[in-house]
Amino acid sequence: MQRINADLDVSVILPAYNEQETIATVVKKAIRALNGLNCSYEIIVVDDGSTDNTRKEVEDLMALIPQPRLYIIAHRINKGLTAALLTGFRHTRAATAIFLCADLQSDPEEDIPKLLTEIRNGYDIVVGWRQGRRENKVFLSKVYNFVCARLFGLHLHDMNWIKAFRREVIEDIELRSDWHRFILMLAAHRGYRITEVKTNWHPRRKGKSKFGPSRIPIALFDAMVIKFLFVFMDNPIRFFGFWGILLIILGSFIFILLILLWITTQTQLRPLMLLSLFSVLIGVFILMIGFLAEMIAMQEMKLDKIEQRLKKDEPSNQKS
Q1: Helix/strand/coil for 41
Q2: Where is average pLDDT lowest: 66-70, 92-96, 157-161, 289-293?
Q3: pLDDT band at residue 3 using 50, 70 and 90 as cut-offs
Q4: Which residues contact 14 (CB under 8 A, 6 or more apart)?
Q5: Which ranges of 42-129 does DSSP label H, i.e. alpha helix?
Q6: 8-232 — its CATH code?
Q7: In whole angstroms, what is the distance from residue 243 CA to residue 108 CA?
């Protein structure tokens, strides 16, 4: 694994959208926890297009806290949690990044030491497992975790909660819109070690939740897309080739039967004839897609090799 040069030990990333009532408390708790661990750190608040005084609350704290330890990065519009995390990841200067909630449902003083302990034990990602959770979304969350466990073989109790990452992880994985839910799957697919720790869940006392049950169907659809990418992107011809050849064989078999039927009985089943020809054409089309996908996969492999070479050359370039 490539060693990442880092200026600090820990970066705490706090995505916040309309959290003016809790953000100051979360930041203060995080500072107390990090000071108690005697480590170098920074706290990055990503204001994701808030329409309240979230940004002002953080800026008021920045005037009181010794710099440079607290930063705020503001999106002009609300872009969602994935975009907020990516912004935080891009600006982190630490060896370990910790994603925490800004709504006080997690307690930084309790949770930061737990997450960092497992990172120091050699894990690449540490996930919080909510204890005592009482929400109407618990059942849907269990269904989601169950489906993901079956699809990806990743047996964790709580995939969408607070997390700690080694910097290697956040520099290695790529996220698209709303793919923050699949950070663990993407990392596990690349061979990173993941564990979970029990953390206390605290009911939200102020503000409103930004995530509702309506996101579950979208998340399940995205999960199927990622599963498809994992299984077939490395060797897409296995998927497209199977279905293409199957349709070609099936269409050809029906076509031959219809020709024999016409020769022996002079019976013409023109709709079935057209259907068989259509099946063959669709099969050829799917097979061609498979060949094109193979070419794309080969180019992707070449790009990955180039990227890895550039990463290996970075330390030597910095020294020179």
Answers
A1: strand
A2: 66-70
A3: very low
A4: 23, 26, 27, 30, 43, 44, 45, 46, 88, 100, 101, 102
A5: 54-62, 81-91, 108-120
A6: 3.90.550.10
A7: 51
- What is the tens place of the pLDDT at every residue in 167-179? 999 888 887 767 7
Closest CA to 254 of 281, 268, 278, 272: 272
Share of the chain above pLDDT 90, in %: 42
Place of tokens 């663990």: 184
What residues form DSSP beta bridges with 13? 44, 99
Give CA–CA dist 172/263, Å, rounded.
63
What the block records as the tokens of 216 is 């579950």
The set of residues, in sequence order, having a beta carbon less than 8 Å from that of 34 and lying 6+ positions away, is 10, 12, 41, 43, 112
What residue ranges of the chain are covered by domains with CATH 3.90.550.10?
A: 8-232
Q: How many other CB atoms are found less than 10 A from the CB of residue 21?
A: 16
Q: Is 203 exposed, middle or buried (0-12, 13-18, 19+ CB in 10 A)?
A: exposed
3-state secondary structure 181-245: HHHHHHHHHCCCCEEEEEEECCCCCCCCCCCCCCHHHHHHHHHHHHHHHHHHCCCCHHHHHHHHH
Q: What is the dihedral of CA 284, 290, 295, 299, to 10 degrees?
A: 160
DSSP code of residue 105? S
Cβ neighbours, 10 Å, residue 44? 22
For the stretch 34-58, pLDDT in tens is 999 989 999 999 999 999 999 999 9
pLDDT, tens digit, for every residue of 111-152? Answer: 999 999 999 999 999 999 999 887 667 777 788 778 878 878
Q: Which residues contact 251 (CB under 8 A, 6 or more apart)?
A: 275, 276, 277, 278, 279, 280, 281, 282, 283
Spatial contact of 198 and 129, defined as CB atoms under 8 Å apart: yes
From CA 203, how far away is CA 102, in angstroms rounded?
13
Contact indicator for 181, 156 with CB cutoff of 8 Å: no
